[in-house]
Amino acid sequence: MKPPVSNHGLLALGCGALLMLLILLLQSRGSAGPPQPAPPAAAVTPIPMPSTPQEECGGHDGELVVATGNDVSTGSVRREVFDEWNDLIKPAADPTAKLLEISGSTDVRRAQMAALAQAGSCEYDVLVLDVAWVTEFARHGYIQPIELDDQGAGFLTGPLEAGQIDGEQYGVPFAADAPLEYRRLDRQSGGYLLQLDDNEMGTINFLEMIELGGGKVLDGDDRTRVALDDDRDDTWEALRSSKRVLSSTEEGVTVLRESLQVDEDRSVVAFKEGRIGERPVSYMRNWPIAFHQLASDPRMRGPDMKLLFGVRAPAADGGVLGGSVLAISRHIKPNKLDPAMRLIKRLTSQEVQARLFACGGYSPVLTEVYERYQAGGGHACPRQDGSDITNASLPELATLASEIRKSIERAQPRPKSPYYAQFSEVFRRCARGVWEQRVTKEAFFSSVGALEAALNGRVPDDRPPC
């Protein structure tokens, strides 16, 4: 292995490169002829695998660490599932499973998981990974392929394929996600809230704004072809539109400008209160998890205990597929591999998936769980003694399961590119610029080159496209 370059060596290399650049600039000033076009941006190469020996990679020998985001379920049911596994179910010889919550922000979580993987750390054994980051983690060597029984029979097609990269399964579906439309039944005169804050959720909502509105951003088998076309007025009009067509009535409702500063949690609060600032709120786009957050609040039920809100899947195709998969770190110690697979099998069993759905609000990834609840079977979550939480009833869960499944079947994945994070940032900057009325139509559509470069891992120049 080559010895590392010292700081003095790096300084010398940098000074030499700077001197050569100055010489080339002076030569170019004295040369005749028209200026030459700039060379194409260099491709970003995959990050090489670190050579950290297993015995020096860190980690916890006595624990199987599962890295994830914050538990947003009602009653922290996900943690209860892990406690049950450790206390009652796991083989005695298997290490204790430790659920480690890193961050509620998917962007922060991705950065931290990637940084440790890049360093060769085995601090995390199993990763609860957003489906948008599977390609990056697989192609950069952060996670390893997983063998599934019966090629994953029983999983919903969309979530299963989201974990497949280059023909191999790298992630086992854990929780599905797709957009739902929430509407207050006790007030119809308010506006519509999206989540357009400057994070990944904003990217998702802007993609949906265009594609649910009849426009086009992405195309191709892996959604890695940028399809923005300035000849398509429907794309521009869908992005600029201040209206969202309701799936229930096909009427247009005003999207509130406050959406630019709203994330998932704040929109749920505003929907409960029926206003944001001085503006009334009657409608909201959110994930299925919001249903339990609303249904468990006594303020969202009438005197007869019926819900004061309804929920429907978007009427059109174009929603963005979300959710998470269970992935195994490339750096997991060999003695933890079989215990990790046993834990994953438990977490994706029908029993656990139904419990996470009924008690926590996580959308199942198994076809049979949906079919059972849609047919009126399954189990509602029992009410906890002394709690003012009202759990969703079996009929309410049946309706929810039906609408979630419709939305998942209509939803489109985000691009399967290891450089999706770069694309997300560029696209969101340009789309927000349109909504902030600082980016023109010409400037927005001129970002196509930068978006294609980002998806292909090419380093953009210093000039932002929007």
From TrEMBL:
<protein>
    <submittedName>
        <fullName>ABC-type glycerol-3-phosphate transport system substrate-binding protein</fullName>
    </submittedName>
</protein>
